[in-house]
Amino acid sequence: MSDLTRLDGAALAGLLRSGEVSSVEATQAHLDRIAAVDGELHAFLHVNAGALDEARRIDERRAAGEPLHELAGAPVAIKDVLCTIGMPSTSGSRILEGWVPPYDATPVARLKAAGLVALGKTNMDEFAMGSSTEHSAYGPTRNPWALDRIPGGSGGGSAAAVAAFEAPFALGSDTGGSIRQPAAVTGSVGVKPTYGGVSRYGAISLASSLDQVGPVSRTVLDSALVHDVIGGHDPHDSTSLDRDWPSFAAAAREGAATGSLAGLRVGVIRELDAEGIAPDVAARFHETVRVIESAGGEVVEVSMPSVEHAVAAYYLILPAEASSNLARFDSVRFGMRVERPGQTVEDVMAATREAGFGPEVKRRIILGTYALSAGYYDAYYGSAQQVRTLVQRDFDAAFAQADVLVSPSAPTTAFRFGEKIDDPLAMYANDVTTIPANLAGIPGMSIPMGLGDDGLPVGLQLLAPLFEDARLYRAGATIEALLAEQWGGILAHQAPTLTEVAR
Amino acid sequence: MKDRLMDFDEALERYEPVLGFEVHVELGTRTKMFSAAPNPAHPDHHDAPPNTLVDPLSLGLPGSLPVVNETAIRYSISLGLALGCEIAESSRFARKNYYYPDTPKNYQISQYDEPIAFEGSVEVQLADGTLLDIPIERAHMEEDAGKLTHVGGSTGRIQGASSSLVDYNRAGVPLVEIVTKPIIGAEHAAPEIARAYVAAVRDIVLSLGISEARMERGNLRCDANVSLRPRGQERLGTRTETKNVNSMRSVERAVRYEIQRQAAILADGGTITQETRHWHEDTGTTSPGRPKSDADDYRYFPEPDLLPVQPTRELVEELRAALPEQPGVRKRRLQGEWGFTDLELQDVVNAGLLATIEATVDAGASPASARKWWTGEIARVANERGVDAASLVSPAHVAELQLLVDGGTLTDRLARQALEGVVAGEGSPSEVVEARGLQVVTDESALVAAVDEALAAQPDVLARIRDGKVQAAGAVIGAVMKAMRGQADAARVREIVLERAAQP
Amino acid sequence: MSDITREQVEHLGRLARIALTDEEVASLATELSAIVDAIATISEVVGPDVPATSHPVPLANVTRPDVEGETLTLEQALSGAPDHDGERFRVSAILGEEQ
Q: Where would one find the signal peptide in this protein (chain C) (predicted)?
C-alpha cells in the first residue's frame, strides 16, 4: 500500500468507501506519521488514544452494511480551541491545562456524527491571540517547510498538521486570519466561512462578533467536504444562520472541472496590493492574477479606503470582547487555581489569572478593559464599531464591481521565530490582509499561489460577499487546478521531506 | 455597632424623604433566560439538589453560548405593559462586567441603554384611601446569579467565613428588574408607600401568572433606595440602597429605619455614605454591605453573542389584549363579586392578599371564609413569625381546609390545628388530618358510649340535668370532648347528653 | 503620545482581576501607550452620522422555545472544579479578615 497520508482527503475517503482501505489502516497511518514527525513539528497538543477504537467501530458499521457518510472513517485534526468530550481542550493556555469538557462543540459533534475519526488536538496561540503559535503556552509549532519558521497563527497547529501529512482534514477558527494566514504560510488551504455559517457553540470564544470556525486541508475540495459537514444552522448559537446552503463540495468539483473563469469578475483590492506587501509575495500575486485573466476572468481594480483603519478597529473590538469572554477563567468552576492559605477569593482569582495567562493574553485583556472602561467607550469601542460599518460599505461597493475579490493572504512568507515576538504592533500589522473579512463577516479563503524567493509558500486570498461561500469554492478550485497544472500537482507535495524518527 | 436613630416624626419634620425601588421578579418559565436548563423558579423544580439544574452555560463553561427564551420575552413584555410602560421597538442585551463567584461568566447579561420597557406607572392606594401613581423608569430583562453558602463563620454570614460554596442552579433564572423614578412627596406615608408599591407589583405579577412571586423564596426581591434632603433644598440627598428585603413587612420597616438612621446622622452634621446596605430581619436594622471597589465601572457593552429583540407591534398588541384587567377595575369587580365592605377590601389590598384570596376562592372556598382565614389565623401566625401570610401556605391548601370544615370533617378548632401542620410542612390539609388523626368523631355509637360513661362518672350532674338544670350539661360535654381529644362536634355531644339524660 | 500611566495599568489589572507584577505594569504601560497611539486615530475617521455595527450579519429576534433540554450530571458539573464538597463548588473566603 502506498503511503495513505500522501493522499488528499477526498481520495482517501473514496478508498474507505470502496473498502480498499479500512478506517483502522487510514487512522493508523496518520498516527504513525504523527509519531514520526510531530516530535520535531509539535503540531499536536494531544493525540487521541481512542482514535483506533473509533476507527474500528466505523469499519464494523461499514462491514454491517450501514449506510455511512462519504467521509466516514477519515481522520481529522481538531484545533484545541474546540471543546471535545474525552480530550483536553486548553485553547493553548496554561489556565485550562488538562481541562476535559463535558460537551462537544457543534462542529466536532457533526464530524463525529459523520463518522470522522479525531486524531487529536492541534496547537495554537493562547486563546487564538497571535499569528505564529509562539504564544502557545505549550511551545510553538514549526513550519514543515522550514523548521526555523513560524507556521502562522493562531491555527498553526492545524495548518502544519495538514501540510506535514499528519492529517488530511483539520478544523480551525478564524477571528482575524487564524485559518487563512497559517494556510498561506504552510502551503495549505483554509476557509473562513460567512459569519454564522458554522456554529460557534463549543468554540472557546476569543471575540464573539469576529470568530468563525472553518476547515483546513491541502485541497479546496477537501475543505469544501468538511465545510459541508460542519456548516448549517445550530439552535445553540444565536448568531448561527438559518438558511439553505448549497453543497460546497459540488461547487468545488464544478470549479475544478470547468478550468475556466469566463464571466467571473475578479476585483483586486488596491490597498492590499501596495507597499507593505513583500516584493516576492507581490510578484506571485501578479502572476496569479494573470493566470486568472488568461482563464477568462475579468480583472478589475477596486478600492477599499477603510482598510487603512481596519487593523486599529480590529485591535479595539477584539481585546474588548476578549477581556469579557476571558473573565470566566477565574479558578472557580474549571481550570487552574493558584492559592495560598488566608487569601480571599478575589486574591485567588487574580493570582490564578496572573499565573495562568501568558503575556499576549494579559496585554489584550488589559487593552480591552481600557477600551471598555468609563470615559473611553465611545472614543474606542464605539468608534471601532463605526469603522466596521465603513468596512462593510467598502465591501458593498467593491462587490458591486466584482464577484470575488483577491489579495495576498499575508504580506510575507513565514517569518522566523522570535522575529516579531517582542513587537506586538508589527505582529498586528501582519493581519492587515485578513482582518477586513472578519469585520464585515464575509467568507474568505486562502489557497497556495507559489513560493517566495526563500522557497516558502505564498497564499492567495479570495473573498466573496456574505453567504456566497460557494463562489469561493468554485473559483478557488478552478485557480487551484490551473496552478496545479503548471506545477505538476498541488503545492503541498513540493514541501521538503521531513526527517522521520524510527516508527 | 448600633445605629443612632431619630424619632420618625421629628425626622419627617426636618427632612424630606425621597424613595426609589428596584424590584427583581424571577419569571416562572420552564427554562432559564438564555439556556434550556430547567428553571428552579418553576414549580416543577423547586428544591432541586445543588448543581443539578445546570448546563454548560449555567456554569459559564468555555465555548457555551446564550440563546434567548421566547417565553421570557413574552412575559417581560406583558409585565412592561401591565406596568403601563412603552415597549421598545428595538431592545438589546448588554454585558455587565464584574467578578463574583456566584456569577459564572463574570459578567451578567442584562440590558443597559435599550431596555425592553420604559416610562410607566403603578397605582397604589394607601390605608386612608389616597391614590398615588408611582413612576416607573424602566423594566429590563437579565439573568439571576448562583447562590453562595458561607461556611466556617459563626452565623452563616459572609463575615468571618473561611470559605464559601457555590450552587449554580439559580444562575440564569430569568429576571425582570423594575426600576422606579425618584418618588417625591411620600412624606409620613413613605414606609406605607414602600409596602403598598411592592404589594401592587406583586399583585400585577400574580395576576399575569408569570411568577409565583413568593418573596420568601426570592421570586420577588426589593432593593429600597432612600435619601433625605433638608426641607427647602432642591438637590437630592445621598442615597443608600438597602438589599435583601424579602417581605413586604420588611420593606416598610427598612424604609422607616433608613429614614430614622439617616436623619440622626444628618442632624449631627454627618454625611451619608452612598452604599449598599443589608437588611437584617432578626434585629430590624440595616448594615453596610460588601464593599464594591469597582462598582462604578461595569464596562457595559452590547452582548455580541445575542441579537436585538424587536417585538413586532402585532405581538405587543396581542399581549396587551390578553392583559388582565387594570388593578383598580379588578378591585371594584372583586368587591362586587365577593360582597366585601370598603374596609374589608382595603384590609385585603394593603396586606397584599387580593390575588391570594382570589386564588383561594378559585380553589373552591367562599370569599368570606377565604378572607377570614387570610386576614385572621394565617395573618396572626405570619405576624408572630415576621413573615408574609402568603409565604406560609398555598391558596389551594386554605381552600381545602375550608372545604373540610364545610363538610363537617373539621371543626374550626381542628382546622386551626390542621393549618399548623400544613405550615410546618407536614403535607396537604387532608394529609395532616390523616397523619395527626384530627377528624371529627362522627361515629354515633362511640359518642353515646362516651356520654354514658361521663354521666355515670358524674351522678350529681345527671341528677341536676334531670331536675331541669340544662346548663349543668356543660360539665359532661367538657368531659366528653376531653375524652374525644376535642375531635367531636360539641353541639352534637350536647344533644346526645340531653337525650341520654332524659332516658331512665 | 497617549500616556498610559502605571497607576492606570494597576487599576485596569484590578478591574481585570490579574495580579500584575511590577515589571508587567511597567512594560504594559509602555506597550499600551504605543498601541493606543496606533489605534486612537480611529475616533477621528468616523463622524457621528456613521452607525455602529455590532454584528456582521444583521439579524433580530433569534429565540428558542421554552422547552427543557439536556443538563449536566452533578458529576459532569463538578468534573473540572479545582475544589468542591461533592455537590457545590468551593472557593476561599470572599471577605478578608479585616472586613
A: none
